[in-house]
Amino acid sequence: MGYIFDFNDSRNYETRFERANNIYAFNLEIELLLKMVAPEIGSSLLDIGCGTGRSLEPLLNRGLNLTGVEPSPYMLDIAKERLGDKADLHRAFAEELPFDDNTFNHSFFLTSLEFTERPAKAIEEACRVTKDKVFICAFNKYAPLNIIRRVKGFFIKNAISQARFFSILELRQIASDILGDVPIEWKTTLQFPFSSSKVCHWIEQIPLVQKSPFGTIIGMTIIPVPRFRTRPLSLRITPQNRYNPVTGFAMNQTQTKEDL
Q: Does residue 255 lie within any of the structural domains?
């Protein structure tokens, strides 16, 4: 089941966006999502752990078919107020998505995988319902800010203290265990979590900088293409007699009249 946000968690999550630095970090996550997934007009997107709908809001008016799932009824109520009928919202868990195979073009976790009970199962479910790309946006366990968050979590209990942090290698390993050798791409963002200046934002867009393994947020795309290794099999054919004469109707050539 994982950690489900209660009423207070949902309210605190919304008040986080009253601070400019949190808005800046969120915008970087959305930029990375749009850059790495690059959804085409008319494609379908599934937001796994959509929360209060903030992660879907920037995708409105882009010609996309949007769907969100969220286990917390308090978060989902806020999302329905925010999005109305512009997105199809469901109460569901990431480990048990209520959709058929290959239902969506893309699916994504925007800092929601951290709160699932079984992250590998959640990723497996995302790959099951997705045709093109699965995008994972997760807290990097080796980023300086997240190290501070993890230490604080031992003393201050809140939603972040319930989160599970990941490394790039861990996410790659989970994807490989599920799908084998499939195309995986990763970047990081929020290299400078304590500054939101224009200069820092410009530096964040440099491709070489986005390959830093110490960025606060990991962005990873998985293309769930099944890969099979085949080998030719030899066919064994047993020859059969096409005609077996029935005894008693014709005289064998070796027989003589005396034998008869």
A: no
